[in-house]
Amino acid sequence: MGTVNATANGLPAVHLVDGSLYVFRAWHSMPDEFFDADGHPVNAVHGYTRFLCELLERVQPEHIAVAFDASLTSSFRNAIYPPYKANRELPPPDLERQFVQCRAVTEALGIHLMIDHSFEADDLIGSTVWNLRALGRRSVIVSADKDFGQLLGEHDEQWDYARSQRWGPAGVHEKLGVHPHQVADYLALCGDAVDNIPGVPGVGAKTAAALLSHFGSLDTLLDRIDEVAFLRLRGAATCAAKLREHAEQARMFRRLTRIALDAPGASTIEVLLRRRQPPDQLDSLCEQLRFGVFTRSRLRALLR
């Protein structure tokens, strides 16, 4: 995969974590044998806390934030396209409770928390990356989500922590066949089943990448649809007809796939500084969540 420089302007990277992804992963991977003091399941909290401890121990970041989703049905994208993410089930009450507890653990460790009911975690991270770039700081986005590829600038990096894979802008092209500035257009064309975005019928990933390689952007492609039929693409004439028929839908889908850069993300580097927290809040959480001795000692060590 493409790699990037360790620093921009000699300054360490700011780590921005896609928190919801790691809570869901813990929910699905951890055994149902962990319960809090009230008897509620906390397997996702235990798994997420282990991930967070490992990340902090490994990186020891000075500046870090974790973004969570709270807008599964209330995102601005739902107003644009009501079926957006309609294929996803709402978290059951047991998991919703654990999301709250995961956020509490995050804050107890002195980490800046980002959450909003109109914007998704992607938007909060994207706006923060944009703000940091203006300050001359580079970002490391800790997530496996391909959508984040559109945010990567020259010095930025994405880190799929579970797979120990890192990549910069060149890695986006290796993975998707398009450059970061084309990712939103690419997803609008070929669709994104995870988010229930159908894309243009008959346009798959390879065709979308080929079209953007030739035309550069969705807007240019739609302005020059008549040329598509003459490209060396399998089914070029059919593809041109589909693009002509679904042009407005493609533009609308791009409003969904493009990460917002005007969300209420962190606007200063100071707010992302990891704070030294008193241990009382963390000790109370450890009791409530019935963390074991090893996890408690790890968490206490991270407060020093």
Concise synopsis of the structure shown:
The protein has 304 residues and is α/β, with parallel strands linked by helices. It contains 13 helices and 6 strands.
Strand percentage, roughly? 5-15%
Q: Output mean pLDDT.
A: 94
**Global shape:** elongated
Q: How many domains would you count in the coordinates? A: 2
How many strand segments?
Answer: 6
CATH homology-level superfamily of the largest domain = 5'-nuclease
Unreliably modeled segments: 1-6
Describe the sheet with the most strands: 6 strands, mixed
Order of helices and strands: EHHEHHEHEEEHHHHHHHH
**Tally of helical segments:** 13
Strands side by side in the biggest sheet = 3-2-1-4-5-6
| CATH C-level category of the largest domain | Alpha Beta
What helical percentage do the residues reach?
40-55%
Instruction: Give the CATH architecture of the largest domain.
Output: 3-Layer(aba) Sandwich
> Which class of secondary structure composition applies to the elements?
alpha/beta
Could you tell me the CATH topology label of the largest domain. Answer: Rossmann fold
Distance between the termini: 35 Å
Would you kindly provide a written description of the structure presented here, covering whatever features stand out?
The chain is of the alpha/beta class and 304 residues long. The chain has 2 domains: 205 residues, Rossmann fold; 78 residues, DNA polymerase, domain 1 (Orthogonal Bundle), CATH 1.10.150. The protein is 45% helix and 8% strand. The chain has a 6-stranded mixed β-sheet with strand order 3-2-1-4-5-6, with helices on both faces. The longest helix is centred in the first third of the chain and has 17 residues. The N terminus is likely disordered.
